[in-house]
Design brief:
It is found in: Endoplasmic reticulum membrane. The chain is an all-alpha fold. Helices cover 77% and strands 0% of the residues. It has one domain.
């Protein structure tokens, strides 16, 4: 299994991405920080991310959920990791990791599928499509792996509890 430190650094990296990039999908341009505007423009120009240009309603809803649930979870998870001696997450947090993994993996998977199926309609070459898919793939695979990892941890813990009850 992946060490919890990998998840810790994933959250630390994802914090500024959420605040400075993803939030621009729902914050009106006139209220965005200059750095948000610059990063968003750079990202769109470099990666031809038509999702960022169009920002369809379903993407904006995903981003609102990211800001309401995922962003606070990044902070909570990072603090929990530090409080546990920088070695692990406490068992009481495991269900939240499972939920986060499903939510983040699923929403990113929807974006991946949309990019794959709609990139030609937006004039992207195969290379540009592959580049854009490469940007969305880690935010799909890492959360889905996290979901699996914490599912196994919870299942093992429940099995251990059931085994202990049988011994009584």
């Amino acid at each position: 299994m992946i060490s919890d430190s990998v998840y810790f650094y994933y959250f630390l990296v994802h914090l500024p991405i959420t605040v400075f990039m993803d939030a621009t999908f729902v914050i009106p341009t006139e209220y965005q920080l200059p750095i948000q505007k610059q990063l968003s423009l750079f990202h769109i120009q470099q990666n031809k991310d038509f999702l960022a240009v169009e920002a369809p309603l379903w993407v904006r809803l995903f981003v609102i959920w990211e800001l309401v649930f995922q962003l606070p979870f990044f902070v909570y998870a990072a603090i929990n990791y530090l409080q546990n001696g920088r070695t692990k997450y406490s068992e009481r947090t495991w269900p939240m990791f499972l939920l986060y993994g499903f939510n983040a993996g699923f929403t990113s998977l929807v974006c991946l599928i949309y990019v794959w199926t709609e990139s030609g309609r937006h004039g992207l070459t195969m290379g540009e499509t592959a580049n854009l898919l490469g940007l969305y793939t880690p935010t799909t695979l890492i959360p889905f792996y996290m979901m699996y990892d914490f599912w196994v941890r919870i299942a093992d813990q429940l099995q251990s509890v059931e085994h202990d009850k049988k011994d009584l």
